[in-house]
Amino acid sequence: RRKHSTVASALPGTVSTLPASPSLPTVASLPMAVPSVDAAAVFGGLQQRTGALGRYLTKLPQALPMALFSTYGAVPPFGALAVVLCPNPTQLARGLACFLGCLLGTVAGASFDRGKKEAARFAVLSLLKEHVQGEAMTVQELRNLISDARSRFGVASGRLAAEAFEDNALGSIYEDLLSAELEGPANDATDLPALQRVKAALDLDGTVVGEAHKNAAQKLVAKGERLEGEAMTRAVDKLLFLSERIFADDEPEEARLYEMSRVRQLLRVTDREAKQRISSVSRALYQQSLSSVVDKVDMRAGDALAGASAAFGLPSDEAAVMNTERYRQIAADLLKGGHLTAEGTATLKRTQGVLQLGDHAATAAFESVAAPIFRKDVDQVADGLREEAPNQTETSVTKLSTRCTELGLSEDARNAVITEGFTATLRSYYDQACKDARINGEEASLTTLDKMLAFASRADTVFAALAAKGGDHLGEAAPTPPITLAADSIAARRLYGLCLARGLDGDSMAAALPEKLAGLLELSQADEETARIEVCQPRLRKLYMDSIEKSEGQPAALPLAKLALDAEKSKYQLPQEAVEETALEVYKARLEPLGGRVIKAPEKSMLDATRKFMGLNEDKVRMLHLKSFGPIYESSAHEAMGTNGIMSPEAKEALAQLRERFGFKEEDARKIFYNAVQKRLDQSIEKVGEAWEEATYTKEALAQLWKQRGKDVGDDPLADGTGGELGIKDTPVLEGVRGSELMKELTDMADFYVGNDVLVQDMKDMPPEYPVTTGKGLEDKVKEEMYGIYAWNTVTCQDTVNRDKWERCKPHVGAILGLSSEKMMKVLIRMVSRWANMFIKQKMGENGKLSDEDISTLTNWVPTFFGIDKDVTVKMVQDANKGMLVSKVLRLLNMPKLSSKDVQQLRDDVDSWDLTLEKDLELTRPQLRSLFCVEVGATLEEPDLTTAQKQDAIEVSREAFGLGQKEAADEVAQLLVSRCRGCLVNAVGDLMQGNETRALKEMQIVGFLASFVDASDGLEVQMDWDVAQSMRQRLLKLYATSPMGREDGGAKHVDTGALERILDVDPLPETAEA
After folding, report:
1. pTM
2. Which of 37, 376, 952, 1000 could be joined to 184 by an S-S link, Cβ 3.0–4.6 Å?
């Protein structure tokens, strides 16, 4: 069978477009006036198109082989008959007649083949006409009959002509049926099963079916001009629905999507619109199936619905919704008489099973119909409960119970409807009460509230009696909760407040109503408390004010009034926070007239009595007192400091009494006082800044600065143009000293700070705290320079009185400027460093170095005199000598010949100042290696040292110059190679010149070096001699036989093995050594 091998290919060609009409009606809204399509009639009509030969062949007996009616069966008889009928007996004539007979037989055979296909099509149509809508024959049986008919007429499946027969004959049968259904009614539930049965019976594959639907879409589009409006919409919807359902069984999924997309493209319908229209048809068809449930509830209808939703492609959730709606319609029809009969109950039970509804869904659907009917009865009962009447409860309970039984409502549904109805009546009362409160006044609103509460009480009684009656049959009934009303919190609080106010005004009967109203309106505890505060807080405020005013001027009377006030206050049941808030408001009102001035002692006593009367402690009224009396206290502090800025003992005592009068805590009064001090400091810092400018700026710069500010420097004797020295002089005098005005201002600032007891020292061992500083009025750099000048002049001043005064003020000055003790020490060290650097520079310029006396001055006298750490000056001296030593190293490295003594002297100088060549002198690695090689070279050629001593000396040098193990080893190896080659070359030259003595001295050095190499483990030396081996051999022999080659000049020769190995020559024979 053919598969969908061309699914991904595009449909070639174009077709005429379908007229777009967004306002066309949907399928579900179309009337069903057109009769249903009769598939048998369609097949009968198709049979009428069969030719005479096809009809004749179908009437032949079944036993007659159809193979006779073919080309092979017709040619021999026609040929023989032509020979027999030939009038000319000659062979040529008979041969020609036979040929013509065979030709005629071929033509007849072709006609027979076409006739058999028509006969097969006629036979298939006959079977479909008879059995397409029959339930007695299954699809498989019908398919077998069709297969037999096809086999009889030579178009059985699998034969050569079968594929063309399926495409043309069978495909056209399916296509004609589809086209006929498209012209039928919009919602016909028989269309889809007929198509599915024909497709299965004809055993059509997806390709043939897809082509049929495509052709049907093309025909439909071609009819667009003749088929308009509802008819066109109906046909398009039906074709989309039938195509989607027929293609649903196609495999793979891509094939189904491809075939459906071809239909949509021809119809010019988007995928989303197609899904909507298909869903509309599915719902309409399923609705037709549901109509049978309304007319007749039996198992047959249930079987029809069981597979309807799946057959029509309706989602299960939509089917469930439609089933529920149908159930509700049936229930509504059964309740039209106002009650549900036993037969109606049974009908609903069967309907629930047919529609496959769960108990919950069926109950909900039924209650949605029965509840509105019962609600009318509830509303009648609620209207009767508005006014009290005899036997009101029994009558209401009987009516509601009877009607609930007649309607078949459950107890839960009954209670829900009754609650809803009674709540609606409560809502009407509530709305009227709110309206009265806004328009008609509080009395009208309270009257409505009383009616609402009375109705709620009667409704709760009826509800409880109804529950008790149901409990008589089912056992003990559960207690029913009272009916409540969800109300707006703001409006509910207003109504609650009206009831509460009436109860507080003395109406004893209405005292319990606020609590009932709170429960009825579902007021939360927070809302109830808020409403109580809104009502009772003004009353408590008035109670406080009246009691205080009655005791005005008599503080002793308030404690007696407190007893009566507490009894009245207990009725309000206010939370403590609200009571305290009210008390603070009253106290604030009493305090406001006293603010802005110094209160008298009686006024202070009355304030204290008022505060105690309302149960307020000092902490509660603290902020009120600060706000009222804080400005006047700060102003008094300024007056106490006076013009000179330092308070007298009497002023301090008066300020302390004022603090007590205002009721300030000591820490609060200190903060206000600190604020006054801060303002004074801010004023004095301007003068300090000007004094600093005079001390640091040159005369020209100062004049320019003051000119910019609009101030004339005039002939100020202090503006002498020496400000660039920053106040540093070796022996400053008091008069005319740079910074004298700055010293005065800073000293006055410290005296002001200390004289007013601003600094705080809680413990003797702890440093004092400075709560007020100059803040951000000055830059940090300026503050440090100010303190530096002050500290330097303090130390260097020759006047004892001023030096002592400045020394006493020095720590305070730095702290007031906002400097920590560490920062002050750094500033002093920086000032001393400036002087020390100038001293060192002067001495180095005079002597080229620092003498012992200079060093003692720097390391001993300077720390003691300036009060700084000795390490600071030692570091200065180190830095000075470091520069000197660096210069010395550079000179040594630039010398044409550097001796080991020079290097050793350099090392000794570095060690004497506790410095290191590598880190402190900042020498480069090549410079360190050069100094190392100079010292090591002399060590290696030293004849009096053993190998071990030389190795130790090399290790000491390596550590001194900061070289690594490998780095030092490489330098030693390179040095040995260089010295050995140099000495050997010199020995060759001396020997060639006839100077054997000098040659032997050079060879002796080579011998020392060779012995060191031979005795050193791990020392690798690669020699590349530029001297011939014979010459090396000659020099070795000369050295071995010379006096230098003997140990201590004796008769024993030295061991020349190391020398032989390093020179890479043959060992000397013993005779040669002798």
Report:
1. 0.53
2. 37
